[in-house]
Amino acid sequence: MSLPRPSVANQRRLTRGMQILLVAIVVYGVVAGEPKAITNGGLGLFVTFVPALAERNYDIPLDPWLGVWITSAVFLHTLGSAWFYAEIVWWDHLTHALSATLVAGAGYTALRGVDLHSDAIRIPTRFAFVFIFVVVLAFGVVWELFEFGLDIVADVTGVSMPLAQHGLDDTVLDLMYNSIGALIVAMFGQAYLSGVAETVRDGLFSIRDE
């Protein structure tokens, strides 16, 4: 069972288009003196190269749709930081849910890789479901604490930070949409991400055995 996915050529076009827009955001930040745009755009641009780096350095080719998934998550967050968070109410909810699916996907891939690597380890499906959900919830809490810490630093130093909290209601909504993203991957990830886990397992352990 597999997801419909773009061809490699289309994936590259989509990725390049988003990377060009991220570069434009960084350039705008430099010209306008907006450190938030520079930080978010620069970090987002770096993350978009992760699939290519994984394939080049670790021989872990990722499916085209997975590359688009990763790039889209950071791209939409960067756009939100640049403008959409302040103008579109649901944009923050969208990016939190999408980012949570990435965290959940990474958690499941790691868990499945361990399961596949050793015959002595057997991870039940129900445990995988709970593991994915708990990992995302824990990551969400750590992220909110990180944003709270940045708020304190901003208040003390007067320096604008790339991330900020916007009250208790916003924090609760963030965690709720994180949970939605976790549930999506917990319910469907085991069907769609098994091949990714096998590819990562083969790539990483083949390097270790060399």
- What portion of residues is helical? over 70%
Quick one: overall form? globular
Which range does the strand content fall in?
Answer: under 5%
Whole-Å distance between the termini? 32 Å
> Which parts are unreliable, with pLDDT below 50 for 5 consecutive residues or more?
none
Number of helices: 8
Q: Give the rounded overall mean pLDDT.
A: 77
Structural class: mainly alpha
Order of helices and strands: HHHHHHHH
List the quaternary state of the chains. single chain
Radius of gyration: 18 Å
For the sheet with most strands, the description reads: none
Q: How many distinct beta strands? A: 0
List the helices and strands and how they pair.
Blueprint: H1 8-32, H2 35-48, H3 50-58, H4 64-87, H5 91-117, H6 125-157, H7 168-192, H8 194-209
Helix pairs in contact: 1-2, 1-4, 2-4, 4-5, 5-6, 5-7, 5-8, 6-7
Offer a few descriptive terms.
mainly alpha; 8 helices; 210 residues
Description:
The chain is mainly alpha-helical and 210 residues long. Helices cover 82% and strands 0% of the residues. The protein has helices at residues 8-32, 35-48, 50-58, 64-87, 91-117, 125-157, 168-192, 194-209. α5 (91-117) crosses α7, α5 (91-117) packs across α8 (194-209) and α6 (125-157) runs antiparallel to α7 (168-192). It is globular and about 55 Å long. The two termini are 32 Å apart.
Short note summarizing the structure:
With 210 residues, the protein is mainly α.
